[in-house]
Design a protein that fits this description.
heterodimer, A: 6 helices, 0% strand, B: 2 domains, 66% helix
Chain lengths: 167, 337
């Protein structure tokens, strides 16, 4: 019962922070709402007995990626975009976003309504310790893991090439 | 005792100890630096100046709370708290003594990762304080802080990874236990001796993470007045001050846990309270080293700092993890699991 209350509260907070992200006109505030959203996501993982995932979420997303986002926003002084600066070519995206949003919401509602009986809020049976996750990654999922590693390496090489001064 | 009550009481006690520790650390620093510079230091308030922190605190409380024009108010007021909270949160996983009485969540199986993650959150307060202050020095200080902490986090995280490899556990309680294998008898089991490279990298990265001399470019007076805290005064300034000192205590406690055997010492089995004493002594020695370095070394240049973080510390830490893993795989003495 407590789990349901805590998870419900976290869900509401998560949606609220996502709305804050979408609706704030200031890019720094938007980035901070996103950080808040990641932190709430991490707490949800904690409640679901997955501390490893929670801590990785915090240190990778909230701690590294979003710090870079905020760094760039501060560096460019791009926190405020006046309506005039909005690129006009993106207007078609509004109806598109609406349609896709309704579709996603419908899908979530469908899953929630049809599978509610079987969905337990807390999965106790899964071992989510770092050892278990590591063994899974390096035994059962080595190939996808290495593919992701290669992808990240390619992205890194790309970033280095892009930032190099041209002689 | 219900878990909630127990955890709340322990956290409250820990925060009380830390805040008192912060106050007296500032006095210790002033006294110690004064001695290193052949001065006497504060000695007027109370015997040996022991009431100086109280006087300082009272002064700061009664300062007028000024909000400069043009600041981004919500973030301007939020930033000082964002500096203090992660620093305090670090202590949740640090075992300050033997037995469950002196530990909060130190058997968390991702403790070392938690430390790295929470440490990386600390940069928000500083960067946002700089941004919200509407002051060019503050913004530059905030940007420097963000760049510096990202650069040194990697080295610190990888040095902790080497420790985790050695202990084959990311729980801080297990890391302390792993530094007392039977065959070493005494302090040779400390990771300081079995992982000297990781220890050196951790120390250097710790100075950069706390942004203290010689890496205090975030608030270099000659270039940036006071950096990100230029526009802060009174209690808001005191919170930044508190954040820096609590973080200094935290990294000292982490160094003690990771490399100096944590709370371990002679006779801890007979009298568990001794373990807290050992832990405190080790932390204070680390803190004195922090202060000593500040009084000794000049500030490094900013581009040198970034070069060292990315081009020296990071590769060396990476190589250290690799070498450690190979040594453990070969089962060399001292590296056997």
């Amino acid at each position: 019962m407590t789990d349901w209350i805590v998870l419900g509260l976290l869900g509401v907070l998560s949606v609220a922070s996502a709305l804050g992200l979408l609706l704030s006109r200031n890019a720094i505030y938007a980035a901070l709402f996103l950080v808040l959203n990641f932190v709430i996501g991490a707490v949800i993982y904690l409640v679901l007995n997955a501390p490893f995932l929670a801590v990785v979420q915090i240190s990778v997303y909230a701690g590294a990626i979003m710090v870079l986002f905020i760094f760039v926003i501060m560096l460019l002084g791009a926190e405020r975009l006046t309506p005039a600066e909005n690129p006009p070519g993106l207007n078609y995206q509004r109806p598109l976003a609406l349609i896709l949003g309704v579709l996603a919401l419908g899908l979530a509602a469908y899953v929630l309504l049809t599978r509610q009986a079987s969905a337990a809020p807390v999965a106790q049976s899964v071992d989510a310790s770092p050892t278990a996750v590591g063994l899974q990654l390096f035994r059962n999922y080595v190939f996808p893991f290495e593919v992701v590693a290669l992808l990240l390496l390619a992205a890194m090489v790309g970033a280095v090439v892009l930032t190099r001064k041209t002689e | 005792m219900p878990v909630v009550v127990e955890v709340t009481l322990k956290s409250a006690a820990l925060i009380f100890v830390l805040l008192t520790g912060f106050a007296y650390l500032s006095l210790l620093e002033r006294k110690f630096i004064a001695r290193l510079q052949a001065r006497i230091g504060p000695n007027r308030a109370g015997p040996f100046g022991l009431l100086q922190p109280v006087a300082d605190g009272l002064k700061l409380i009664f300062k007028e709370s000024v909000t400069p024009k043009g600041v981004d108010k919500p973030i301007y007021f939020l930033a000082p708290a964002l500096v203090v909270v992660p620093a305090l949160m670090l202590f949740a996983v640090i075992p300050v003594g033997k037995g469950a009485t002196f530990q909060l969540a130190s058997d968390l199986n991702v403790g070392a990762l938690y430390v790295v993650g929470v440490m990386s959150l600390a940069v928000y307060g500083i960067a946002l304080a700089g941004w919200a202050s509407n002051n060019k020095y503050a913004v530059l200080g905030g940007l420097r802080a963000a760049a510096q902490m990202i650069a040194y986090e990697l080295g610190m995280g990888l040095s902790v990874a080497a420790v985790v490899l050695m202990a084959s556990s990311a729980s801080l309680a297990d890391i302390v236990a792993a530094q007392y294998p039977e065959q070493y008898g005494g302090i040779l089991g400390w990771f300081l001796f079995r992982q000297p490279v990781a220890a050196a990298i951790f120390v250097i990265a710790a100075f950069a993470e706390v942004a203290r001399a010689p890496f205090d470019l975030v608030e270099a007076e000659q270039e940036l007045t006071a950096g990100f805290m230029t526009e802060y005064g009174g209690m808001k300034f005191a919170l930044f001050f508190m954040g820096e000192y609590v973080k200094m205590i935290a990294v000292s406690a982490l160094f003690t846990t990771f490399f100096l055997g944590g709370w371990s010492g002679p006779f801890v089995n007979e009298a568990p309270i001794l373990s807290v004493v050992y832990f405190t002594i080790k932390v204070v020695v680390c803190l004195l080293a922090f202060i000593w370095v500040r009084a000794t070394l000049p500030r490094v240049r900013y581009d040198k700092l970034m070069d060292m973080g990315w081009k020296v510390l990071f590769p060396v830490a990476l190589a250290n993890v690799l070498v450690t893993a190979v040594l453990i795989l070969l089962g060399l003495p001292g590296y056997r699991l």
